[in-house]
Design a protein that fits this description.
The chain is of the alpha/beta class. It has one domain: Alpha-Beta Complex (Maf protein). It is built from six helices and seven strands; from the N terminus they run E-H-E-H-E-E-H-E-E-H-E-H-H.
Length: 206
């Protein structure tokens, strides 16, 4: 094996997230999507950092059980504000509550990444980014909730979408807030001895 493992098959992404797929394809990686189903509930008294690492690793290992011998990447993202862990809202009422909690406050976006090399060795790490929301008028929250954007996002917002209007300050990795921290992935592929991306963007629809 060479110094850098060069998988013959595309990177297996254990996620259905179009945002993560797009971020990887922008780097030039060939991607195969393989969404997995696990219980994504945060455990009682579990901190956000511990939860994202546990869930990312569980997703990677579930994908490994279904597609052995592949290089697999899994991720999980949560938002933490005032000690509350905010996952994906279950309905408009929970999304409204999350945005009210975030309004005018600093919060933290935490993403856990888990990378399995072709031999099944697991490498995992996380990324943290702090953001400050503007004070949101009720009419802005209600207008945002009329769209589809909030409902499959941790914390009920997508910074790369209309919710970018809400952000007043960001400290840390911007790609982390979208759900795939490049700096953490870069460390993991180095640890795993996996060849990095081509840096020649691929067609996102390909």
């Amino acid at each position: 094996m060479s110094e850098r493992e060069d998988p013959a098959q595309p990177l297996l992404l254990a996620s259905a997230s179009p945002r993560r797929r797009e971020l990887l394809r922008r780097l030039g990686w060939a991607i195969e999507l393989h969404p997995v189903t696990i219980d994504e509930n945060v455990l009682e008294n579990e901190e956000g950092a511990a939860a994202v690492l546990r869930l990312a690793q569980q997703k990677a290992l579930r994908a490994l059980s279904e597609r052995p011998g592949r290089v697999i990447l899994a991720a999980d993202t949560l938002v933490v504000c005032q000690g509350q862990v905010l996952g994906k809202p279950v309905d408009a009422a929970s999304a409204h509550k999350m945005l009210r909690t975030l309004s005018g406050r600093w919060h933290e976006v935490i993403t856990g990444l888990a990378l399995l090399d072709a031999r099944g060795k697991l490498h995992a790490d996380l990324s943290r980014t702090k953001l400050r929301f503007a004070k949101l008028p009720e009419e802005e929250i209600l207008s945002y909730l009329r769209g589809t954007e909030p409902y499959d996002k941790a914390g009920a917002y997508a910074i790369q979408g209309a919710a970018g209007w809400f952000i007043e300050e960001i400290r840390g990795s911007a790609s982390n807030v979208v759900g795939l921290p490049y700096e953490t992935l870069r460390r993991l592929i180095a640890l795993a001895g996996i060849k990095g991306p081509s840096l020649q963007p691929r067609d996102v629809e390909g």
